[in-house]
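Hi all, a correction to my earlier message: I attached the wrong file for Alpha/beta hydrolase. Here's the right sequence:
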Amino acid sequence: MRLRHLLTLLFFISTCGFAQDTLSINLENVKYPYPVHFLSLNTEGQDIRMAFMDVKPSSPNGKTFILFHGKNFGGYYWTNVIKALSANGYRVIVPDQIGFGKSSKPFIHYSFHGMARWNKKLLDTLGIGKTYVLGHSMGGMLATRFALMYPAAVQQLLLENPIGLEDYRTFVPYRSAEDQYKTELKTTAESVKTYYQGSYFTQWKPEYDYLVEIGSGVAKSSDFPRYAKVAAMTFEMIYEQPVCYEFVDIKVPTVLFIGQKDNTIVGKALLSEVEKARHGRYAELGPATAKKIPGSQLVIFPQAMHIPHVEIADEFLKSLLSNIR
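and the right structure:
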């Protein structure tokens, strides 16, 4: 598995030409590991497209996974998870949410309810009635909302270091999308790498650089102001639409995968050092959340931070496959 993971990283490094390239805000010049398709949608009078990969296994077991990415990512960082699931017979659907990755970047009211509805339409269009739902980070908030809205469509809910385990509104000062937009416009490769190093991994490795190159490459695009505006709007969505009060209402089998060294707080830069120390403590938030979700299981990764499926890929995949029900 380690060799496979390394080959995946080399694939990105070789195909994206990161160091000097400008990336389009829809990542047209980033080659994804599998063919990308598009679902046509219409919202608020706008025609938009939702990008997705649909990976069918060579020896299908008749079951499907859908993977929901985090806020600073797209479907590209799920490659090793897709390969592992596909090798075990699962069909894997990997959407880029509207506003992210290769999908459209419209100026609309962003909501987890709306995103859940679009993903349900995607599954309906593909003829998929029931699926395993794996959500990471922001994708965990979306996966939770999806499970609350469409419990009959969820075989099992799998949450990898989801954000939203606490209500950020109760301790993070309000920041408008307009103010956040000004911050997003300052994005550079250096600022992205500094954030990723401090927030996502216990120890930085060169193979993580491709995440920075994709995350910061769009800042060189002439269309970056649109990308930055959408990023600010989805920041506002996360802040204003908590799911933590509804964990008790989840009615599907659920597993939480928690990297205990995670200290993610949406809006952390707005906090004092004292407040930073009080919140984002996943070693405590993980078990507390598991107690709220009826019948849930908790899997702990003591030495991982925010992205276990990248940082401790082999351990995460082994645990994921062993906890599928």
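Sorry for the mix-up. The radius of gyration is 18 Å.
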